[in-house]
Amino acid sequence: MGEKNPNYVSSAILSRKIADFNDSAKLLVPFLKKKTNCAEISTECSFAKTMEDVNKCFEPCCIHIRPGANSNNLRKEITEKLTTNHGFINLDINALIRDENERKTAIG
Fold first, then answer.
1. In this structure, what is the dihedral angle of CA atoms 7, 9, 25, 42, given to the nearest 10 degrees?
2. What does the DSSP 8-state code read for residue 37?
3. Domain ranges, ordered by start, for the chain
4. DSSP string, 39-105
5. Per-residue pLDDT tens for 36-86?
6. Of 23-27, 51-55, 93-97, where does the model show the most confidence?
7. pTM to 2 decimals?
């Protein structure tokens, strides 16, 4: 995005906004920890370590990962790791729709 783009923000302004966000978060996080079941998880480590930390905070749940453009293999890899290594259940929307359509066809 160049300077002529209407959404352009200079790096100096963007840096200031990021710093402001981080300063605000420093005040907000203690409040959230006190009043909610908020957990802080660092994402500055490997994906596997981040997911290990996330899974310590949550029970396995259903997931659906929407593929982006040309990312079907990545979606499959993420889904397989979450289901195999972490006990998640893949909610395959396309399979559910296909099964429902077949059920409706069978009923007539």
1. 90
2. -
3. 1-38, 42-107
4. -----SS-HHHHHHHHHHHS---EE-----TT-HHHHHHHHHHHHHHH--EE--HHHHHHHHHHHHH
5. 888 888 888 888 888 888 888 877 666 666 667 777 788 888 888 888 887
6. 23-27
7. 0.38
Angle between helices 47-57 and 72-86 (to 10 degrees): 50
Residues 6+ apart with CB under 8 A from 7: 1
The pair phi, psi for residue 30, each rounded to 5°, is: -60, -40
Q: Which residues contact 60 (CB under 8 A, 6 or more apart)?
A: 86, 87, 88, 89
Taking CA atoms, 40 is separated from 50, 54, 85, in Å, by 11, 9, 22
Q: For residue 85, which amino acid is it?
A: N
Q: Annotate 29-51 with b (16+ C-beta within 10 A) or e (fewer).
A: eeeeeeeeeeeeeeeeeeeeeeb
